[in-house]
From TrEMBL:
Keywords: Membrane, Transmembrane, Transmembrane helix. It comes from Jeotgalibacillus salarius. InterPro entries: Gate_dom. Residues 42-153 form the Nucleoside transporter/FeoB GTPase Gate domain. This is Spore maturation protein. The chain crosses the membrane at residues 37-54, 91-112, 133-153, 165-186. The keyword Transmembrane applies.
Amino acid sequence: MVNLIWIFMLLSGIIFSMFNGTIDEVNKGLFDSAGQAVELVIGFAAIFTLWLGMMEIANRAGLLSLVTKLFYPIIRKLFPDLPKNHPASGYIMTNISANFFGLGNAATPFGVKAMKELQQINTKPEQASRSMVTFLCLNTAAITFFPATIVSMRLSEGAVDPLDIVVPAFIATIFSCSAAILYDRISWKLVEGKSK
């Protein structure tokens, strides 16, 4: 269904540009977008390679299991159906840590690995498990103490004070993360109530 929507939007735009006399702009946009897509893929490949390599080093050095043990009480409350000392716990904590420091691109490979680990213990593989949904909520509305990516973008654009976003962003993400966790818990209570 989504593919049909995209095809409809694409064809509508092309047909409209033909009647509107702006087909040259569509052609230029296609080639410009193709170049940007290649740059984006190469950038993501580099970031994924770096952070997946770092993650593997941290895993072999025992750092992920150490972080998991330190934060196990929090993980246990948020993910009650996750087995103790499961590899997903380390990836979840690493993802949360990367998001905490505003490194969204660095958090992505850890999130992908966490989802793969969670899928392996999913009793209903055709649908997302409770842990997967909770992790998605946490990842989407993560608490960010220092939004490094935004600060670096503001710095590159010549902002007078690129750090003035830090405190408001931290406060906003505390509220967003709290709301996401609350919504997740209420949703699961409603689902559990209907299944009984």
